[in-house]
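Lab notes, practical 5.
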Amino acid sequence: MDIKLILKNIVKTDLTLSVSGLSLNTKTLNKGDVFVALQGERNHGIEFIENAIKKGCAAVLIDGMDFNCSVPTIRIDNLQTHLSKLAQNFYTKASNVDLIAVTGTNGKTSVSHYISQLLDFLVTDNGVIGTLGMSKTQNKSINTTPDIFTIYSTLQEYSSNGIHLAVIEASSHALMQGRLEGLSFIQGIFTNLTQDHLDYHQTMDNYREAKGKLFQDNFSKKAIINRDDENHQYFLDTSSDKEPITFGVDDLEYFKNSDKGFICQLNDYVFELPLVGEFNLSNAIAAYNSVKCLGFNDDQIIPCLAKLSPPPGRMQQLANSNIWIDYAHTPDALDNALSTLRMHYPEFNIRVIFGCGGDRDKGKRQMMGKIASERADSIILTNDNPRSEDPQAIIDDILAGTKVENDVQIILDRGDAIRSAIHSLREEEALLIAGKGHETTQVIGSKSHPFSDIEVALDALK
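Output from the prediction step:
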């Protein structure tokens, strides 16, 4: 596309140049892309212009300053405010895709994937953009919630390949930073709100308001709200949808534990939901309401609920063992995961391995230590993604919440911690490996190292 078309209604230029894409990140920049140099949380994009040129960028857009380099450079004041217009000008087919957004502290990934699975069973082409999202046209991972150009380019590829419905995880950061700007959603779904990301939002009120943006100003045409969450009234009161749908676990006439998950009754249908944890009852009901809003009926949807499977790293049981992997990295999620194992293994000792991420919300560390003390019989504290923080300092923050009488070990090397726990696991013990779930890297200092809880655990099981 000619750069004049990309810059239409933003800035005038006499430049004639063919452009293949837009990029905010040199790691994902392709030859022929325009590199958009913005101020980030820690660095300004200007620091990466030379790298962008080496990778073959066609031009540079820069915010509020003049800059000379070996490719054409265009200055645009308040560049951040023009990102959605740039995306709309270039990725013209992105608007052809209907969007469902899922927001909440926990459950975003599960609900997104349950909706996608139900649609697959109902032979409806769809895509998912999120933590585990795989572009069905690119076969590559898409991280939660990706930058605005990645979202638009993915939707463009979906549209070009005949996919006109996608589910996206809408994080609070994405909503605050405008990564979803210019898009509109046929549905917005709220799962729950518990403490996380206060390093960024500072207060729970700010965090709640960030989530609430999804339901205001007609951003989402239909609001689907979890009434079991204590914050649900805020989302109902501030939603621009005057007839929102609410859901809760009590939508089920009854449920009881089964070997695979739960036996449930919903609207006179009795079925087995093959998912463990009561939180997954809520997630499944959210997905059910979403798909029903698309026009499918109970006869079509409810039999498909019996075929759902958890996403990788979400209460994932390894090789028919008593070992479970879960992404739980918030107090509420850790509480849910440990309570699920206590329910699943009432006569067993419950062991847990976890840590907390560095350079992130420090306030939740002591809370997670307290929850582990109350829910587990023994604890191994280890590294999560320590990033630039001292790993022992993170452990000390967690220890402040644990009880003196608890069986607590500290093994900073996460691989050693997992191997030690599995090799010493007795017959009537169950182990939860929490915090990283599906992740395949570990961030130590400024470097990202290959690491997978699932692979390490499976190797130890051998």
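Observations recorded by the TA: Residues 134 and 141 are 5 Å apart (CA to CA). The domain at 3-80 is CATH 3.40.1390.10 (Udp-n-acetylmuramoylalanyl-d-glutamate--2,6- Diaminopimelate Ligase; Chain: A, domain 1).
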